[in-house]
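Technical annex B. To support the medicinal chemistry partners, we prepared a structural model of the target in complex with adenosine-5'-diphosphate, based solely on the information shown next.
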Amino acid sequence: MKVLHVCSELYPLLKTGGLADVIGALPFAQKMIGMDVRILLPAYPAIFRGIPETHVVAEFDNFAGHVVLQYGEYNGLGVYLIDAPHLYAREGNPYHDADYNDYGDNYKRFALLGWIGAELATGLDSWWRAEIVHGHDWHAGLAAAYLVNKGKPAKSVFTIHNLAYQGQFARRHLDEIGLPESMFDMNGLELFGQISYLKAGLYYSDAVTAVSPTYAQEITTEEFAYGLQGLLGSLREQGKLVGILNGVDEQIWHPSCDGYLQYHYKQKNIAGKKKNKAELQAYFNLPPKEEALLFVMVTRLTEQKGIDLLIESADEIVAQGGQLALLGSGAPHWEAAVRALAEAYPANIAVKIGYDEALSHLMVAGGDVILVPSRFEPCGLTQLYGLQYGTLPLVRKTGGLADTVVNSTADSIKERTATGFVFQQANATDLRQAIRQAFSLWQKPKIWSMVRANAMSQDFSWRNAAQHYQALYRRL
Ligand code: ADP
Ligand code: GLC
């Protein structure tokens, strides 16, 4: 079975969030179980730098101008790169400029991505023809529409990593991107009077997946669906919308071999974890106290992540003598707000603004508790990394967080299923209560170690997910 992943990020070459981690792992796990998988990406400068040896597969002009399709290999996996410098030769974030303004030609940049995804199912590369075109997030949503428009030469799968990002564009662009007016319909890619690349992916694909079972359910409700609950609810009823949980790439994220860490450790011998904690406290200029409960958070600073809830309840951490280290980047007002928090409590709270892969590993390894108080969370990867590293996740009960973390209660502790702390409502009171719960468990070191051992023995390998996707492809 020949599968083409159509997407816009690839760890470690280009990453804005968990999508890159997924594309850096899932196709490779699929290859391991014997599938013939390739990836299609825009040739952003960082992608080209990481895949310097390529050859030309095709060269043509279309609605997006002059385009060269290149092919190369990355870690043994085939990658098509769309070489169109007028669209993609921009450093930094792939979606917006340094001031957070979306690029004005995004409609064209991501239409081309979808268009080529569909063409690779009809012989654009005469040596390899996709039988399944698997698009990820709105960036790849149009692939399914172009496939339908071409008479369905291949099956299509669309994975929702985050419904909050939709790719909405003005109707007038429709004929510029080579799609018929007839598709601009409620039963089509129209949403609130605009073209929605996300909806195109949902509507025209043969199957839709979300990155966790709970999120697949949540997005059929008004609260999570941004107006798409009708469509998503009916896909769910027809069995066309399912949840497949993400995994953890254990070559990148495992405390026994993490390439970014100086001190390795494992469940049976966690001495190295204490050294990472000391190193982390030193890095952040926090007092080197082993007994202080150290909370960490690694995140994009957006509404989604509940950063405001943390800002409101962080004084609880301070009052109980704990510490908080936060690494994040995002909208300027959030960056300013977390900086102000660190200034208010310099002895307990430290913040680094920016994107720092190496530091993110030290934080996951050195922390005692990793915070993920999200309002919604399609899957969430940092809580999975926390489990793997024995850094207990403190999460809100939503999406993938609800599917992967078991709250520490008297019962779950007794049954040895407890792995972290889970709170219900997205408000500061509930978060504060969960923080207190963590402090109270911290007072019982034996139980803490037991919960940590439970966490570290969870299995979130990508092999599982790869098999689930394979079964889905086979069904199609
Ligand atoms: P999302 O994709 O919504 O941002 P995930 O939890 O799925 O959330 O994935 C986030 C990924 O990005 C994780 O690998 C996390 O470690 C990483 N990350 C987020 N913010 C930063 C940052 N400021 N520096 C380094 N890594 C970050
Ligand atoms: C999105 C979601 C996150 C998920 C990631 C990878 O960015 O916000 O929850 O883990 O995609 O699927």
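Notes passed to the chemistry partners:
The chain has a mean pLDDT of 97.
The chain has 20 helices and 18 strands.
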